[in-house]
């Protein structure tokens, strides 16, 4: 078998129930690629870490939001989804019913809630991931 150089990332799609539907938690990226663009909270999986644990860790590091459990949405691995190289993301989703303060941290410049009906342009293939996650609502 040929050596493979494939990275694994985890992304979190966090919905907040509001009066007129849902809001979605996004972060503004500090680093390239897609510097200063909005994306889902997430990042590279640690070598010794289960998938959901990695998603929960990245969520807390980048937004300050601490959750106990997430639901796996699926795996996203289209060629070219990340300009740094072959990267497969395992996405998770969660939902909260009350307002919680979020603040950008780690490699996230900002963290904010956006109306699900009015999202900014997103980095990577995160629009596709969000579409898949909304099917779980």
In short:
The protein is α+β, with helices and mostly antiparallel strands.
Fold blueprint:
Layout (H helix, E strand, L loop, with lengths): L6 E12 L2 E9 L8 E2 L2 E3 L6 H13 L7 E6 L10 E10 L11 E8 L10 H9 L3
Parallel strand pairs: 1-6
Antiparallel strand pairs: 1-2, 1-4, 2-3, 2-7, 5-6
What does the model show?
It is a single chain. With 137 residues, the chain is of the alpha+beta class. The chain has a single domain (7-132), classed as Nucleoside Triphosphate Pyrophosphohydrolase, CATH 3.90.79. The chain is built from 2 helices and 7 strands; from the N terminus they run E-E-E-E-H-E-E-E-H. It has helices at residues 51-63, 126-134; strands at residues 7-18, 21-29, 38-39, 42-44, 71-76, 87-96, 108-115. Strands 1, 2, 3, 4, 5, 6 and 7 form a 7-stranded mixed β-sheet that branches. A hairpin with an 8-residue loop joins strand 2 (21-29) and strand 3. The radius of gyration is 14 Å and the shape is globular. The termini are far apart. The model has no long low-confidence stretch (mean pLDDT 95).
